[in-house]
Amino acid sequence: MKFEKNATIKGAFIPRSALALSGFSEDEAAALHVLPGAIVLLKKRMTAMDLLGAMDSLSKLSTDLTTELFKFCGPCDDCQGDGCPYEDVDGPIDLPDYLREAAGIPKDAKLCADVDEDEKSVTIYAAGHQHDLSDVPEGLRPLLESLGICLAQLEEALISGEVVCDG
Ligand SMILES: [Zn+2]
After folding, report:
1. Does residue 51 belong to any structural domain of this protein?
2. Does a structural domain hold residue 20?
3. Which residues are placed with Cβ below 5 angstroms of ligand 1, an ion?
4. I need a surface site. Which of 73, 105, 106, 144 has the fewest CB within 10 A?
5. pLDDT at residue 2, rounded to an integer
6. Residue 158's beta-bridge partner residues?
7. DSSP code of residue 13
8. Looking at the 3D structure of the chain, how many domains does it have?
9. pTM: predicted TM-score of the whole model, two decimal places
Protein backbone atom coordinates (compact mmCIF):
# COMPACT_ATOMS: atom_id res chain seq x y z
CA MET A 1 0.00 0.00 0.00
CA LYS A 2 1.32 3.42 -0.92
CA PHE A 3 0.67 6.81 0.65
CA GLU A 4 1.58 10.35 -0.30
CA LYS A 5 2.11 9.45 -3.93
CA ASN A 6 3.08 12.98 -4.86
CA ALA A 7 5.22 13.77 -1.87
CA THR A 8 8.86 14.50 -2.45
CA ILE A 9 11.35 12.60 -0.35
CA LYS A 10 12.36 15.82 1.39
CA GLY A 11 10.39 16.18 4.56
CA ALA A 12 8.59 12.85 4.01
CA PHE A 13 6.42 11.83 6.91
CA ILE A 14 4.46 8.70 7.61
CA PRO A 15 0.74 9.16 8.24
CA ARG A 16 -0.65 7.64 11.44
CA SER A 17 -2.95 5.40 9.38
CA ALA A 18 0.07 3.99 7.50
CA LEU A 19 1.79 3.18 10.77
CA ALA A 20 -1.32 1.39 11.98
CA LEU A 21 -1.63 -0.63 8.76
CA SER A 22 2.01 -1.68 9.05
CA GLY A 23 1.49 -2.82 12.62
CA PHE A 24 3.71 -0.12 14.12
CA SER A 25 2.68 1.39 17.43
CA GLU A 26 3.22 5.15 17.71
CA ASP A 27 6.15 4.84 20.09
CA GLU A 28 7.68 1.89 18.26
CA ALA A 29 11.47 1.95 17.97
CA ALA A 30 12.24 1.88 14.26
CA ALA A 31 15.31 0.94 12.24
CA LEU A 32 15.88 2.90 9.06
CA HIS A 33 17.59 0.78 6.41
CA VAL A 34 19.25 3.05 3.87
CA LEU A 35 19.95 1.01 0.75
CA PRO A 36 20.85 1.85 -2.86
CA GLY A 37 17.54 2.91 -4.43
CA ALA A 38 15.41 2.25 -1.34
CA ILE A 39 14.92 3.44 2.22
CA VAL A 40 13.09 0.89 4.34
CA LEU A 41 11.66 1.48 7.79
CA LEU A 42 11.38 -1.66 9.90
CA LYS A 43 10.60 -2.30 13.52
CA LYS A 44 13.80 -2.22 15.53
CA ARG A 45 12.71 -5.13 17.69
CA MET A 46 10.87 -7.89 15.86
CA THR A 47 9.24 -11.13 16.88
CA ALA A 48 9.62 -14.11 14.55
CA MET A 49 6.15 -13.26 13.17
CA ASP A 50 7.13 -9.61 12.64
CA LEU A 51 10.21 -10.78 10.79
CA LEU A 52 8.25 -13.18 8.58
CA GLY A 53 5.75 -10.42 7.80
CA ALA A 54 8.55 -8.03 6.79
CA MET A 55 10.24 -10.69 4.64
CA ASP A 56 6.98 -11.48 2.88
CA SER A 57 6.18 -7.81 2.27
CA LEU A 58 9.64 -7.01 0.87
CA SER A 59 9.50 -10.07 -1.35
CA LYS A 60 6.09 -8.96 -2.71
CA LEU A 61 7.42 -5.45 -3.28
CA SER A 62 10.36 -6.88 -5.21
CA THR A 63 7.94 -8.91 -7.34
CA ASP A 64 5.88 -5.77 -8.02
CA LEU A 65 9.00 -3.90 -9.15
CA THR A 66 9.98 -6.80 -11.40
CA THR A 67 6.48 -6.69 -12.91
CA GLU A 68 6.89 -2.97 -13.64
CA LEU A 69 10.14 -3.64 -15.47
CA PHE A 70 8.57 -6.51 -17.39
CA LYS A 71 5.58 -4.36 -18.38
CA PHE A 72 7.95 -1.74 -19.78
CA CYS A 73 10.42 -4.02 -21.58
CA GLY A 74 7.98 -6.74 -22.61
CA PRO A 75 8.75 -10.38 -23.36
CA CYS A 76 11.64 -11.15 -25.68
CA ASP A 77 10.48 -11.96 -29.16
CA ASP A 78 13.78 -13.54 -30.06
CA CYS A 79 16.12 -10.62 -30.39
CA GLN A 80 18.89 -12.89 -29.16
CA GLY A 81 20.33 -13.03 -32.66
CA ASP A 82 20.89 -9.28 -32.62
CA GLY A 83 23.23 -9.18 -29.69
CA CYS A 84 20.74 -8.79 -26.85
CA PRO A 85 21.83 -11.50 -24.38
CA TYR A 86 24.30 -11.04 -21.58
CA GLU A 87 26.85 -13.16 -23.43
CA ASP A 88 27.70 -10.00 -25.32
CA VAL A 89 28.43 -8.19 -22.09
CA ASP A 90 32.10 -8.19 -21.28
CA GLY A 91 33.73 -6.68 -18.28
CA PRO A 92 34.31 -2.93 -18.18
CA ILE A 93 37.14 -1.49 -20.27
CA ASP A 94 40.02 -0.27 -18.16
CA LEU A 95 42.01 2.81 -19.03
CA PRO A 96 44.78 4.16 -16.78
CA ASP A 97 43.96 7.46 -15.09
CA TYR A 98 46.74 9.35 -16.87
CA LEU A 99 45.34 8.37 -20.27
CA ARG A 100 41.81 9.31 -19.18
CA GLU A 101 43.09 12.68 -18.03
CA ALA A 102 45.08 13.24 -21.20
CA ALA A 103 41.99 12.49 -23.27
CA GLY A 104 39.74 14.62 -21.04
CA ILE A 105 37.52 11.67 -20.19
CA PRO A 106 35.83 12.03 -16.77
CA LYS A 107 36.86 9.41 -14.19
CA ASP A 108 33.39 7.86 -13.94
CA ALA A 109 32.56 7.88 -17.66
CA LYS A 110 31.76 4.52 -19.20
CA LEU A 111 34.15 3.53 -21.98
CA CYS A 112 33.55 2.04 -25.42
CA ALA A 113 36.13 0.45 -27.72
CA ASP A 114 36.34 0.10 -31.49
CA VAL A 115 38.72 -2.50 -32.86
CA ASP A 116 40.46 -2.15 -36.21
CA GLU A 117 41.75 -5.61 -37.09
CA ASP A 118 43.67 -4.41 -40.16
CA GLU A 119 45.49 -1.69 -38.26
CA LYS A 120 45.72 -3.90 -35.15
CA SER A 121 44.51 -0.93 -33.13
CA VAL A 122 41.87 -0.22 -30.52
CA THR A 123 40.18 3.15 -30.14
CA ILE A 124 38.82 3.75 -26.67
CA TYR A 125 36.38 6.61 -26.12
CA ALA A 126 33.84 7.88 -23.60
CA ALA A 127 30.40 6.37 -24.12
CA GLY A 128 27.53 8.79 -24.55
CA HIS A 129 25.51 6.94 -21.90
CA GLN A 130 25.86 6.22 -18.20
CA HIS A 131 24.33 2.75 -17.98
CA ASP A 132 23.85 -0.37 -20.06
CA LEU A 133 23.35 -4.11 -19.59
CA SER A 134 26.76 -4.42 -17.95
CA ASP A 135 25.27 -2.56 -14.96
CA VAL A 136 22.53 -5.14 -14.29
CA PRO A 137 23.37 -6.54 -10.85
CA GLU A 138 24.85 -10.02 -11.21
CA GLY A 139 22.28 -11.51 -8.83
CA LEU A 140 19.33 -10.29 -10.96
CA ARG A 141 20.52 -11.69 -14.28
CA PRO A 142 19.22 -15.26 -13.82
CA LEU A 143 15.81 -13.89 -12.76
CA LEU A 144 15.52 -11.53 -15.74
CA GLU A 145 16.64 -14.28 -18.12
CA SER A 146 14.24 -16.85 -16.69
CA LEU A 147 11.37 -14.36 -17.04
CA GLY A 148 12.23 -13.93 -20.72
CA ILE A 149 12.26 -10.15 -20.38
CA CYS A 150 13.50 -8.46 -23.56
CA LEU A 151 17.10 -7.57 -22.84
CA ALA A 152 17.38 -5.40 -25.95
CA GLN A 153 14.52 -3.24 -24.64
CA LEU A 154 16.08 -3.24 -21.20
CA GLU A 155 19.39 -2.08 -22.61
CA GLU A 156 17.65 0.69 -24.57
CA ALA A 157 15.97 1.86 -21.36
CA LEU A 158 19.27 1.73 -19.45
CA ILE A 159 21.06 3.74 -22.12
CA SER A 160 18.31 6.36 -22.53
CA GLY A 161 17.80 6.66 -18.78
CA GLU A 162 14.07 7.19 -19.36
CA VAL A 163 11.48 6.71 -16.62
CA VAL A 164 10.15 3.14 -16.70
CA CYS A 165 8.01 3.22 -13.56
CA ASP A 166 6.06 6.23 -12.29
CA GLY A 167 4.16 5.72 -9.07
ZN1 LIG B 1 14.47 -9.29 -26.92
Report:
1. no
2. no
3. 76, 79, 84, 150, 152
4. 106
5. 56
6. none
7. -
8. 1
9. 0.75
- Ligand 1 centre to CA of 109 (Å) is 27
Residue 30 DSSP SS3: strand
Angle between helices 151-160 and 48-73 (to 10 degrees): 90
- 80 C-alpha vs ligand 1 centroid, how far in Å? 6
Q: Which domain holds residue 123?
A: 74-167
Beta strand residue intervals within 21-165, DSSP E: 30-35, 38-43, 111-116, 121-126
How many CA atoms lie less than 13 Å away from 56 in the CB half-sphere?
7
Q: List, for the chain, all residue ranges whose pLDDT scores fall below the cut of 70.
A: 1-11, 80-91
Distance 132 CA to ligand 1 centre (A): 15
Residue 121 CA to residue 154 CA, distance in Å, equals 31
Q: Residue 34: helix, strand or coil by DSSP? A: strand
Q: 92 exposed, middle or buried (CB, 10 Å; 0-12, 13-18, 19+)?
A: exposed
- Does a structural domain hold residue 123? yes
Residue 48 counted as domain residue:
no
Query: Taking the alpha carbons of 102, 105, 108, 110 in that order, is the dihedral positive or negative?
Result: negative
CA of 133 to the centre of ligand 1 (A): 13
Q: What's residue 162's pLDDT?
A: 95
CA distances, 114 to each of 15, 49, 80, 95, 125 (Å): 54, 56, 22, 14, 8
